[in-house]
Specification:
Helix content is 58%, strand content 0%. It has 225 residues and is mainly α. It folds into 2 domains: 100 residues, Helix-hairpin-Helix base-excision DNA repair enzymes (C-terminal) (Endonuclease Iii, domain 2), CATH 1.10.1670.10; 102 residues, Hypothetical protein, domain 2 (Endonuclease III, domain 1, Orthogonal Bundle), CATH 1.10.340. The longest helix is centred in the middle third of the chain and has 19 residues. It is elongated. The two termini are 20 Å apart. The model has no long low-confidence stretch (mean pLDDT 94). Bound molecules: iron/sulfur cluster. The site of iron/sulfur cluster has 13 residues, from helix 11.
Length: 225
């Protein structure tokens, strides 16, 4: 049976704020302008890629979409393709059927109701098919630089290992993190968490030896013993 990961004690609010501030300062020093690893050239393309990235890696989405984006894929072209045409282009990605349906439907709405513009309002964004809170947060942060933080698997795991929460629901984690992270570090903190989780604090065998926040991390001893 797979051994269940142990998590550290939850820290006090003061400790949490101090830990996250120090972590952000270190991440900022090594990577002052973190970037989204999804490839895109327009806000519309970013939205499509974020919708596509549900249960798929950024790498696989980029592989599939980069050639289309380099030919300046537009909402009008997507509309012309119709659902079946979109499916043909994205069938290498998981849940391609649902995703092509959503991409077609959201494109129609963007053209008809938003005059091709990606809404900067969370409620409007979340009304689009296939756009949940996480996707809306990524788009708001990346395109409109709004202080939001999308909680994906990396953000969830790293913040839990840092003793910042013991929650199951991403929305609760989002609330906790947005309360303790200084607004000036949002939305870069979203990227720092993801990059830290993807390349250092990996799900299996985190690389604690090389971790630049190991002296701050309450999980260090759990992994080093
Ligand atoms: S010390 Fe280990 S568990 Fe803690 S943040 Fe770094 S990599 Fe993750």
């Amino acid at each position: 049976m797979k051994k269940k990961e142990k998590f550290p004690k939850i820290q006090s609010l003061k400790q949490k704020k101090s830990l996250i501030k120090k972590s952000c300062l270190r991440w900022q020093k090594t990577n002052p302008e973190p970037k989204c690893e999804l490839y895109y050239r327009t806000p519309y393309q970013l939205l499509i890629s974020v919708v596509m990235s549900a249960q798929a890696t950024d790498k696989s989405v980029n592989k599939c979409m980069k050639p289309l984006y380099e030919q300046d894929l537009t909402p009008d072209q997507v509309l012309k393709m119709e659902e079946a045409g979109i499916f043909e282009k994205i069938k290498s990605i998981g849940l391609a059927k649902t995703k092509s349906k959503n991409i077609y439907a959201l494109t129609k709405i963007l053209i008809k109701e938003h005059n091709y513009r990606i809404p900067s309002d969370r409620q409007e964004l979340q009304k689009l098919p296939g756009v949940g809170r996480k996707t809306a947060n990524v788009v708001l942060a990346e395109i409109y630089n709004q202080p939001t933080l999308a909680v994906d698997t990396h953000v969830y795991r790293v913040s839990r290992r840092l003793g910042l929460h013991r929650e199951d629901k991403p929305e609760k984690v989002e609330d906790i993190l947005t309360q303790i992270i200084d607004e000036k570090f949002l939305p870069a903190a979203h990227h720092w968490f993801i990059l830290h989780g993807r390349y250092t604090c990996k799900a299996i065998k985190p690389n604690c030896q090389e971790c630049i926040i190991k002296d701050l991390c309450p999980s260090l001893e759990l992994f080093m013993t």
